[in-house]
Write a structure and sequence with these properties.
Elements lengths: L1 H21 L14 E12 L6 E5 L5 E4 L3 E2 H6 L8 H14 L2 E2 L1 H4 L1 E5 L3 E4 L3 E4 L2 E11 L4 E8 L3 E7 L1 E11 L1 E2 L2 E2 L5 E11 H4 L1 E8 L2 E7 L8 E19 L1 H18 L3 H5 L9 E6 L2 E13 L4 E10 L2 E10 L3 E11 L2 E11 L1
Antiparallel strand pairs: 1-9, 1-24, 2-7, 2-23, 3-6, 4-5, 6-12, 8-11, 9-10, 10-17, 11-16, 12-15, 13-14, 16-18, 17-18, 18-20, 19-22, 20-21, 21-24, 22-23
Length: 360
């Protein structure tokens, strides 16, 4: 009885294996006149088609936030006067006062400023774009039938250059109220407004670089028949996954962002005048760069040309609708997040592949 039960159990356990082995779609054996597996290697050229998208910027300075000005040069105030207001008499008064103070407005006179515009803004005509890159591609296929296959696209992850576009400026505006001692002089309010230059992305060229991991899978349909048609076109649709690591920022751009961090820190520390003059604060701004993972649909048209029943040439063109997000954060250990900049990167690559393969 025990032997019978053991035999039945062994037989039942073997049924899935036998069924799998005899399946016309899932098997390790050759199909009806075709090989189940193929692998090819070759050159994979990636050509991003996306355009730069505006960078969205947020800082720790809320609209309407009041900060002490600290010591500020008279010339700095004059350079940042609101051009839409008639403040000629005020400018003359400031110059006269500066004559007696050595060109400075000390903190006991400069008072405070109610700041607008720095909380959040979109930097128009700016953005990031990925450059073309060529790498080593590996394509593996499993054929369910002579016409239908599953392809896994892979390769050596290339280093991709991320180019910066445009100039970033901060839309600064404020109402400054001088004071004598602790007495605010509200009748002497000073209107300030200026676009403060933060970074010229065009001047830096390459803003950053990253290693791109973009594996993909596709279900493909191959026209023609093995052993009959040497030239066989195919089409495929599938999904791509994009992951980026080893991100490195251009040192010149990083320096500009550290300066921006000091500007925000100075305002937080009651030295708004020093912020306008781009002086270093007592903070220690650190720049962090991150890129989000992304999934994208991918479609391919291509062909194979058989040299014999095992060796073949392959060429294809694919398109993936791929968009990622890059986040740049400037932080300080004590003050927390000072600046955050986010930008969508529309990669949308066309991928050209040419290689040689082997079936087994």
């Amino acid at each position: 009885m025990n032997k019978t039960l053991l035999y039945l159990a062994t037989s039942l356990a073997a049924v899935p294996t036998l069924t799998y082995a005899d399946s016309p779609y899932f098997s390790l054996k050759d199909g009806d006149g075709f090989k189940r597996f193929s692998v090819s290697v070759g050159a994979l050229h990636v050509m991003p088609q996306g355009k730069a998208q505006p960078i969205q910027i947020n800082t720790a300075i809320k609209n309407g936030e009041v900060a002490q000005n600290g010591t500020i040069k008279v010339d700095t105030v004059l350079e940042n006067l609101d051009p839409n207001l008639n403040q000629d008499a005020l400018a003359a008064t400031l110059k006269f006062l500066g004559f007696f103070t050595g060109g400075d407005l000390p903190s006991g006179i400069s008072g405070s400023s109610k700041i607008q515009g720095l909380e959040s803004w979109e930097a128009q005509n700016t953005g990031l774009e990925a450059e073309d890159v060529t790498t080593f591609g590996i394509m593996t296929n499993y054929f369910f039938t002579d016409n239908i296959s599953l392809e896994i696209k892979a390769g050596i992850p290339p280093k991709v250059d991320i180019m910066g576009k445009g100039k970033i400026s901060a839309p600064f505006a404020a109402i400054a109220t001088p004071q004598i001692g602790n007495l605010p002089l509200d009748f002497l309010e000073i209107g300030l407004k200026n676009d403060i230059a933060i970074a010229d992305l065009d001047a830096h060229g390459k803003a950053a670089e990253a290693r791109a991991w973009t594996p993909a899978f596709e279900f493909q349909y191959h026209f023609g028949k093995t052993g009959v048609n040497k030239f066989r076109p195919y089409v495929g649709v599938g999904l791509m996954y994009a992951y980026f690591n080893e991100l490195e920022m251009n040192p010149a751009l990083e320096k500009d962002l550290v300066t921006a961090g000091h500007m925000i820190a100075n305002i937080k520390q009651g030295n708004a005048g020093a912020a306008l003059e781009k002086k270093e604060s007592s903070a220690n701004p650190v720049v962090e760069l991150e890129a989000s993972d992304a999934f994208a649909p991918v479609a391919t048209v291509g062909f194979t040309y058989d040299f014999n029943d095992r060796w073949f040439a392959v060429g294809s063109v694919s398109y993936a609708h791929l968009k990622g997000e890059t986040t740049i954060t400037v932080k300080d250990a004590q003050l927390g997040e000072l600046v955050q900049a986010k930008s969508d990167i529309e990669i949308n690559p066309i991928l050209g592949y040419a290689g040689v393969g082997y079936r087994f």
